[in-house]
Amino acid sequence: SSGINAEWPLRPGVPVSSALCECPEMIGSSARCAKNYNGILFEMLGLDGSMFNNVVDNLDWKSLKTILYGLTKAVCGVKNGKDCVLETSKMYSLGGKLIDNTFSGDDGCLSLRRVE
After folding, report:
1. What are phi and psi of 23, to 5 degrees?
2. How far is CA 18 from CA 6, 57, 111, in A?
3. d(CA 46, CA 40)
4. Residue 78 — pLDDT band, cuts 50, 70, 90?
5. Range 76-82, long-range pairs (CB < 8 A, 24+ positions)
6. Do 27 and 69 form a contact (C-beta atoms < 8 A)?
7. Are 14 and 86 in contact (CB under 8 A)?
């Protein structure tokens, strides 16, 4: 596991990733929760839950869990003195900035608006 890092407050994904490193079984538990969810919140809010049900019913859960377990294994730990969870969090933050810039109309280097 990566341990506590002073940059955590600036990187909201770090605690979640670190928790997954400590307990990767959360992936399977979350999948079971989604598959077994009774939709009560949709009902309480008067919303149509059919899209959620369609996704849950048609998702390849085994493949998704395999991918998530693989990503978790790759992200957890330290390599060359660097905390892999923190380094990966930086990458996700940069990806988020790319998406934000794209949708805000920015056409600089960190935007997909430049793609033809």
Report:
1. -145, 75
2. 14, 29, 29
3. 10
4. confident
5. 76/1, 76/2, 76/17, 76/20, 76/21, 77/1, 77/2, 77/21, 78/2
6. yes
7. yes
- Decide: helix, strand or coil at residue 38: coil
Q: Which amino acid is at 61?
A: W
Tokens 């794209």 locate to 102
Kindly report whether the global pTM for this prediction surpasses the value 0.70. Answer: no
- N- to C-terminal Cα separation, the chain: 41
pLDDT-based confidence at residue 13 (cuts at 50, 70, 90): low
pLDDT of 73 above 60: yes
